[in-house]
Each structure stands twice: as structure tokens, then as C-alpha cells.
């Protein structure tokens, strides 16, 4: 009930005319009535507002304009703090970056600006109204501050691996072809081909700006589907927007650079959003709960209030369009990345198992066969001679986990070890909050199946392979949507209001639970959420930019590699420094930006903590043909110092030892890099031609045409089955049964041919 409106001063109800209209102040004086036109009410002259009244009104309206002002102030302050020349409390000097990363060089004013933006967010979210556009703008501003810091302070686009991806784009745009024998990633060329088309159509020849701002743009792009996911859960406004903020604060994984992984993660989020929004399913349990045993507890969970909203009022045409969009997103992921399609497939399958989608089992079989077919037919040049690389890590959960945790902590210097420990600390904190959120929701009778699925399905990837020691990073990234949603429930677990007329959230507590003051509980929860947000924001810089000393790219390093590109006719080789030789040790330099088929980066030069020991590097360079270079760069030296314990002055002393070598000639030198080549070559030797990037053709088997035909039949029948099923579970049962009779044997034949190809080709290559 709402309180009755109080009567005006003077007592009594307002006087009314015979027709029921209220009379304002009684009859006017006779003289005034004669001089006024009939039918116009008398208007008293407006009194001018005093300055005190204006100030009071401005203060009273502060909740509307103050968050906007604070956000803009914090954003401008942050940009100035990072872009102005270094000085007291402002500016960033790259020379100050140490083992802690970028956080060691950030000025105090930058942290104050972030604190201001976080405070403005919580001021807005504490209000009773849902100011969607302002909250989205505030989260976008915080995203800019956190994920745009690298672009604001960097001389060149950061993260060395982004350059080789730009090289793939340049190669495809120049030749119109892919070449899996140059790099295995070319077997999944969807991302590279897309940007090759875009850059060529737009006339873009220099991708520096794209590489520079891709991390920020990627994280802003991630927000859109994630907010759509949050709209499909039964949660309060505070819980939803705090989950969105957490998603920004704990996304330190660093896979948002110019890469297929960063691109397909956005496709994954859109895939999940479509599943929940257009194909979500919520059914209340009607069966009685079993009396005892495990089935009793499962029955209780099934009888709880669903944590998702049901999909209602969607037209069949909309569902058909979204189904096609779902498949298109999956196809783009299959053609672009190795891991993302399995995450999508796992989510669809789990939604079907736990009855959270209206789709049928035809879809996961349709999508799963698509993944297997791409690997079998389109990437055969990669796996034909190294089948153990794909399947060797299956089931080795402990080994895969060790390669992602323990191996990354051992051997670091004390300062840099804090960075790795901070990453594990963020992981532990967000998982602990997620567990607390799940528990608090269960106590309120709510079971969030979808959030739990999004959290748990990526963990199954540990049983696949180590993925070059990075599968743990991928699991963390894909588990973030579910983890952030459940973590938000740790602070705001209540259900939302039943209607728009009731702004307060409902708290369905059990009778035996102690009921605290709801208003006090809300304030405490808000303060705790703000404290955790500030803690995550500060830890973000340590975790996200902790490798900045060797992940940042300098102008001198880029200039050294441009020298190689200018002299790579017809080919060239670059040797990079490694503490141990192995296939999983990649260059810590901006390699492969151009001419990926001409410049070879496959040779490693082993170095030691003693900088005078240059014999191995010299002999390795001597064994190479003409136009081969040994590169010593700031990034490589910093990596050796932070992760392998090399001395602080190792880089200068190593370059000095190379300068004294009578066998080497220095062809380029600057503050950040140096290039060395062999001083004397045998007269008459020529620079070798580059290895051909066109192979002899992929090996095949006699059954391959049969398998391709079976694939086509399977996909057509399963897709038709799913389209008919959109009309409802009882529509056209005979037609669906006939489609299944055709799809099942075709699926079996297609799968058998795929297995036969793996066995036959692997044995003969």
C-alpha cells in the first residue's frame, strides 16, 4: 500500500466545484473577475527564485547529474594522467617499468581517477531506478581506463604475437591464398581472411592503429552480448550491473589482442546470448520429490525457482533467423579457432542435458560433425605428420594443469612472481565469490543452472590437451561469464520485484532464517561490493600488465625487423634468443609483420646466464645460409631476466661480447635492438630461395568422396529436422521420423570416414 496524500496546510480537503473539479483558492475578487476574459483561470504572478532556492534544488537533484559528472571527470583525469609528460603525480615513464609491470610506472592520479569512476558507478547502481544507459556508459569508461591503458602509453602496438597475425592478414591479402605449411594457424584462416578482405576493400596498408586499439575495442564488444545474457537471468538490477562490472575487472587474461581467440570469444558470448534469449527453456517441476537418497536432493534442486527467464512471445520466423545466426556464429568459429567451437558445443550439449533450451539433440550432432569435418578435411596438412600433437594430451588433466600453473611460477624473480601470484589470487577470489553466490541463491530457493553450466563446461577442456601450456588461460576466459554472474549473487542474491509498481526487491527467506534489517543489509552489501571492485581494479593492473616489461614493443625493435623485411629478397632468417630449445618457445619480439613466406623465424639461439658465453649463438648463426640475422632485443632480454633469472646487466654485456666477436658483423644497432650477421661467407654462395608455401596437395583416401556425400546428407537432414521442430514438439512427427531414418546412417558413414582418414593418413605420412 502507498501512503495517502496529505491534505494541504490549513486542514480539510480542497474545495470542489459542483462538477467535481477542485476550486483553486475560492472565488476571486469582483474587480479582478470583470477584467479577465471568460474561461481563462487566473494566474498568480510567479515569484523569482532566490539563489538559495536554486542551490537547494540543484543539491536535491544531485543523484541525477553527479554520477555523470564524476564519470566524465574521472575519464578526463585518467587520460591526462597517462598522456601528459612525466612529472609529479602524472605521466608514465616506460623506464620505470620493472618486474611488477605497468603498475610500477602509473602515476597516483591515474588510480584516483579510476576510484572516482568506480564510486560514480556505485552511486548510480544504489539508486532505486535502473539507469541503463548511464550504467553502460560508466562501465564502458572503466573498460577504457583498464583495457586502454596499454594503448595510451605504448610507443607501438603491444604484444608481439599480434604482429604475426597481421602478417597472416598481409599474406592472404597479397596472395589470395592460405598456407598451412607456413604456420598451423593458417589451417583456421577465417579471422585472417576476414580482415584481409576488410583492409583491402578499405585500402588500409598499415595496420598499426588496428593493432593498437584492438584490446580496448574487443572488451567493449564483449560487453554487448554479455549484457544481453544478463537480461535473461532472474536477478536484481544491482546484481546484473555488478556482474557486468566484474566481467571487466577480472578479464586480465590478455587474449583480447588482434587474434582469432579474441575475435571468437565475442562470437561465443553472442552464441550463448542467442541460446538464452531465443531458445531458453524454463519448466517448473511437477513430479513429486523422491523421499530419500541422491534423487531426493536432485529433485529438490529441480523444484527450486529457475534462475533464468523463460522465452515467451517469440515468432517462428524470429526463431528461424536466430537459428541460422547460431549456426553462422559456429561456422565462423570453426573456421577461425581451434578451441572456441568445442566450448560452444559443450554449452549446447549441457543446456540440453539440463533442460535449458528448446532446441533438440539434432543440433549438437550437426555442430559436432562440422568441427570434425573441418579438422579432417581442411587441416590435414597440419595433423598428417604429427597426430600425437592433437591427441597426445587427451586425458592428461594433471599434466595439463601443471603446465599452466606450476611451470609458470617457478623460475621467476621475486617481483615478477607477485604478478603470477596475483593472477592466481584473482582466480581464487572470483571462484570463492561464485561459490558463495551459488550458496546464497540456493538458500533463497533459486537454482541457477545456466550460470553453473557456463562456469563448469570450460573446465572440461583440461582433459583435451595443454594447448602449448595455455589451456588454463583459455578455461579461465570462457568460464568468466558464469563466474562473474554467480559472484555478483554473493553480494546481491535476492530476487527482483514482482512488478514495476514495486521497486523493492523481494527476499524469499525461509522462516527459520534470522531476518536482518533489509535496508542495513543492502547498504552493507553495496559497500562490500564496492570494496571488492576496488580490490579487483587494483589487482587488474598487476595481473594484466605484469608482463609489460617484455610484452610492450618499442620503436627500435620494430625498426630492426623492418630492416630484415627490406633485405629479405629472396629470403631471410632471424635467430632469436632462448634459455632452452623447444617447439613451444616462441620469439619475444614483434615478428612476422610482413613477408611471412620469405622470413624464417624457426631458428633458436641458446644463451646462458653468463653473458660471455656466446659460442652457441655464434655457431648457430654460422650454420645458417646467407642473409641470416641474430637479433638481440629489449623484449627478449627482459623476458630472460624476469622469467629465467638472468642478471640485470645481461643485455649490455651480451651485446658487448657479440661486438667483440671477430666472426660477426653488426648491421643495425639502436637502444632497443641489434642485428648481427656472419662477417665472411664462402665466395659464390647465394641467398637461398624461400620454401614453397604451396604443398603437393593434401593426402586423401579412397573413401573421402563417400564421406563428403554423407556429410552433406547428414547436415541437410538434421537442419531440416531442427526447422520442423521449431513449430513445436508435436508438429509433423512422421516427417521428422523419416528425416532421422535418413540422418542416422548418413551420420554413421560420415563419422566412420573421418576416423578412417585419421588412421590411414597418419599411418602413411
Automatic annotation (TrEMBL):
<keyword id="KW-0472">Membrane</keyword>
<feature type="transmembrane region" description="Helical">
    <location>
        <begin position="524"/>
        <end position="543"/>
    </location>
</feature>
<feature type="transmembrane region" description="Helical">
    <location>
        <begin position="216"/>
        <end position="233"/>
    </location>
</feature>
<feature type="compositionally biased region" description="Low complexity">
    <location>
        <begin position="31"/>
        <end position="48"/>
    </location>
</feature>
<feature type="transmembrane region" description="Helical">
    <location>
        <begin position="739"/>
        <end position="762"/>
    </location>
</feature>
<feature type="transmembrane region" description="Helical">
    <location>
        <begin position="57"/>
        <end position="80"/>
    </location>
</feature>
<feature type="transmembrane region" description="Helical">
    <location>
        <begin position="706"/>
        <end position="727"/>
    </location>
</feature>
<feature type="transmembrane region" description="Helical">
    <location>
        <begin position="135"/>
        <end position="154"/>
    </location>
</feature>
<feature type="transmembrane region" description="Helical">
    <location>
        <begin position="100"/>
        <end position="123"/>
    </location>
</feature>
<keyword id="KW-0812">Transmembrane</keyword>
<feature type="transmembrane region" description="Helical">
    <location>
        <begin position="420"/>
        <end position="439"/>
    </location>
</feature>
<feature type="transmembrane region" description="Helical">
    <location>
        <begin position="451"/>
        <end position="467"/>
    </location>
</feature>
<feature type="region of interest" description="Disordered">
    <location>
        <begin position="1"/>
        <end position="48"/>
    </location>
</feature>
<feature type="transmembrane region" description="Helical">
    <location>
        <begin position="321"/>
        <end position="354"/>
    </location>
</feature>
<keyword id="KW-1133">Transmembrane helix</keyword>
<feature type="compositionally biased region" description="Pro residues">
    <location>
        <begin position="1"/>
        <end position="11"/>
    </location>
</feature>
<feature type="compositionally biased region" description="Low complexity">
    <location>
        <begin position="14"/>
        <end position="24"/>
    </location>
</feature>
<feature type="transmembrane region" description="Helical">
    <location>
        <begin position="239"/>
        <end position="255"/>
    </location>
</feature>
<protein>
    <recommendedName>
        <fullName>Glycosyltransferase RgtA/B/C/D-like domain-containing protein</fullName>
    </recommendedName>
</protein>
<feature type="transmembrane region" description="Helical">
    <location>
        <begin position="361"/>
        <end position="384"/>
    </location>
</feature>
<feature type="transmembrane region" description="Helical">
    <location>
        <begin position="262"/>
        <end position="280"/>
    </location>
</feature>
<feature type="transmembrane region" description="Helical">
    <location>
        <begin position="473"/>
        <end position="492"/>
    </location>
</feature>
Amino acid at each position: 500500500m502507498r501512503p495517502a496524500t496529505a491534505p494541504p496546510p490549513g486542514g480539510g480537503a480542497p474545495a470542489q466545484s459542483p462538477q467535481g473539479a477542485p476550486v483553486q483558492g475560492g472565488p476571486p475578487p469582483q474587480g479582478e473577475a470583470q477584467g479577465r476574459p471568460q474561461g481563462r483561470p487566473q494566474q498568480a504572478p510567479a515569484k523569482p527564485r532566490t539563489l538559495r532556492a536554486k542551490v537547494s534544488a540543484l543539491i536535491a537533484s544531485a543523484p541525477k547529474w553527479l554520477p555523470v559528472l564524476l564519470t566524465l571527470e574521472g575519464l578526463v583525469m585518467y587520460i591526462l594522467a597517462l598522456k601528459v609528460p612525466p612529472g609529479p603525480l602524472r605521466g608514465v615513464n616506460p623506464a620505470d617499468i620493472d618486474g611488477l609491470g605497468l603498475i610500477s610506472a602509473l602515476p597516483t592520479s591515474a588510480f584516483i581517477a579510476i576510484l572516482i569512476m568506480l564510486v560514480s558507478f556505485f552511486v548510480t547502481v544504489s539508486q532505486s531506478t535502473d539507469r541503463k544507459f548511464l550504467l553502460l556508459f560508466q562501465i564502458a569508461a572503466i573498460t577504457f581506463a583498464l583495457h586502454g591503458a596499454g594503448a595510451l602509453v605504448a610507443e607501438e602496438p603491444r604484444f608481439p604475437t599480434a604482429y604475426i597475425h597481421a602478417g597472416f592478414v598481409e599474406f592472404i591479402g597479397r596472395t589470395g591464398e592460405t598456407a598451412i605449411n607456413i604456420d598451423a594457424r593458417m589451417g583456421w584462416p577465417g579471422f585472417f581472411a576476414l580482415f584481409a578482405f576488410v583492409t583491402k576493400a578499405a585500402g588500409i596498408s598499415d595496420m598499426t592503429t588496428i593493432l593498437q586499439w584492438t584490446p580496448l575495442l574487443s572488451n567493449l564488444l564483449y560487453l554487448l552480448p554479455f549484457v544481453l545474457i544478463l537480461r535473461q537471468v532472474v536477478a536484481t538490477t544491482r546484481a546484473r550491473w555488478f556482474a557486468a562490472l566484474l566481467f571487466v575487472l577480472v578479464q586480465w587474461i590478455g587474449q583480447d589482442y588482434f587474434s582469432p581467440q579474441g575475435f571468437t570469444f565475442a562470437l561465443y558470448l553472442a552464441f550463448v546470448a542467442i541460446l538464452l534469449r531465443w531458445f531458453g527453456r524454463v519448466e517448473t517441476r511437477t513430479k513429486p520429490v523422491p523421499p530419500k537418497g541422491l534423487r531426493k536432493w536432485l529433485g529438490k534442486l529441480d523444484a527450486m525457482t529457475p534462475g533464468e527467464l523463460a522465452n515467451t512471445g517469440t515468432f517462428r520466423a524470429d526463431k528461424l533467423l536466430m537459428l541460422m545466426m547460431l549456426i553462422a556464429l559456429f561456422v565462423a568459429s570453426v573456421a577461425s579457432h581451434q578451441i572456441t567451437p568445442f566450448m560452444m558445443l559443450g554449452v549446447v550439449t549441457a543446456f540440453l542435458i539440463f533442460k535449458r533450451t528448446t532446441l533438440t539433440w539434432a543440433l549438437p550432432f550437426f555442430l559436432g560433425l562440422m568441427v570434425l569435418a573441418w579438422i579432417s578435411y581442411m587441416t590435414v596438412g597440419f595433423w598428417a605428420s604429427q597426430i600425437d600433437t592433437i591427441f597426445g594430451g587427451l586425458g592428461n588433466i594433471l599434466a595439463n594443469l601443471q603446465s599452466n600453473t606450476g611451470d609458470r611460477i617457478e623460475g621467476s624473480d621475486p617481483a615478477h612472481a607477485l604478478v603470477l601470484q596475483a593472477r592466481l589470487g584473482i582466480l581464487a577470489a572470483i571462484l570463492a565469490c561464485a561459490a558463495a553466490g551459488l550458496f546464497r541463491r540456493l538458500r533463497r530457493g533459486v537454482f541457477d543452472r545456466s550460470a553453473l553450466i557456463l562456469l563448469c563446461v570450460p573446465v572440461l577442456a583440461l582433459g583435451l590437451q595443454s594447448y602449448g601450456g595455455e589451456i588454463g588461460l583459455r578455461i579461465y576466459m570462457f568460464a568468466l561469464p558464469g563466474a562473474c554472474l554467480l559472484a555478483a549473487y554473493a553480494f546481491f542474491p535476492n530476487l527482483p520485484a514482482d512488478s514495476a509498481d514495486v521497486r523493492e526487491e523481494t527476499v524469499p527467506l525461509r522462516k527459520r532464517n534470522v531476518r536482518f534489517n533489509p535496508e542495513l543489509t543492502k547498504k552493507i552489501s553495496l559497500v562490500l561490493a564496492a570494496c571488492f571492485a576496488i580490490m579487483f581494479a587494483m589487482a587488474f593492473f598487476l595481473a594484466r600488465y605484469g608482463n609489460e616489461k617484455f610484452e610492450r614493443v618499442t620503436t627500435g625493435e620494430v625498426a630492426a625487423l623492418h630492416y630484415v623485411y627490406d633485405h629479405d629478397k629472396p629470403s631471410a632468417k632471424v635467430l632469436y634468443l632462448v634459455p632452452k630449445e623447444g617447439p613451444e618457445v616462441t620469439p619475444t619480439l614483434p615478428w612476422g609483420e610482413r613477408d611471412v613466406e620469405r622470413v624464417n623465424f624457426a631458428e633458436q639461439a641458446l644463451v646462458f646466464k653468463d653473458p660471455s658465453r656466446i659460442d652457441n649463438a655464434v655457431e648457430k648463426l654460422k650454420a645458417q645460409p646467407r642473409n641470416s640475422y641474430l637479433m638481440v632485443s629489449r623484449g627478449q632480454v627482459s623476458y630472460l631476466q624476469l622469467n629465467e633469472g638472468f642478471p640485470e646487466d645481461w643485455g649490455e654485456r651480451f651485446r658487448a661480447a657479440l661486438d667483440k666477436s671477430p666472426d660477426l658483423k653488426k648491421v643495425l644497432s639502436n637502444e632497443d635492438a641489434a642485428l648481427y650477421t656472419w662477417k665472411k661467407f664462402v665466395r659464390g654462395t647465394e641467398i637461398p630461395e624461400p620454401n614453397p608455401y604451396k604443398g603437393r596437395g593434401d593426402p586423401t583416401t579412397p573413401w573421402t568422396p563417400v564421406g563428403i556425400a554423407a556429410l552433406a546428407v547428414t547436415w541437410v537432414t538434421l537442419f531440416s529436422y531442427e526447422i520442423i521442430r521449431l513449430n513445436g514438439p508435436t508438429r509433423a512427427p512422421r516427417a521428422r521420423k523419416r528425416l532421422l531414418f535418413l540422418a542416422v546412417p548418413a551420420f554413421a558413414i560420415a563419422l566412420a570416414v573421418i576416423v578412417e582418414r585419421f588412421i590411414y593418413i597418419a599411418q602413411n605420412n
